Amino acid sequence: MRAVARVMEVSRSNLIEQMNTEIVKGRTRYTIKDDIWLLPMIQYFTAKRATYGYRRGAALLNLKLLKAGKNKVNQLG
Length: 77
What we know:
It is a single chain. The chain is an all-alpha fold. It contains 4 helices and no strands. The chain has a domain at 31-77. The radius of gyration is 24 Å and the shape is rod-shaped.
């Protein structure tokens, strides 16, 4: 352990502490497979007017979904 700490130029106590702590995983990456059914609607709005931002696109998508009796999508961007 001493040689490893010397090569890495860190203290042995720091090295031991980092080895004993669990790595906290961050957010998982967004997967699209759950929302694949939304893509045709999104592509329709962007083909209609490419200058729409994500807020207006989400608003139009939510209007269409509410008319169909489905839940709104999140607008987190």
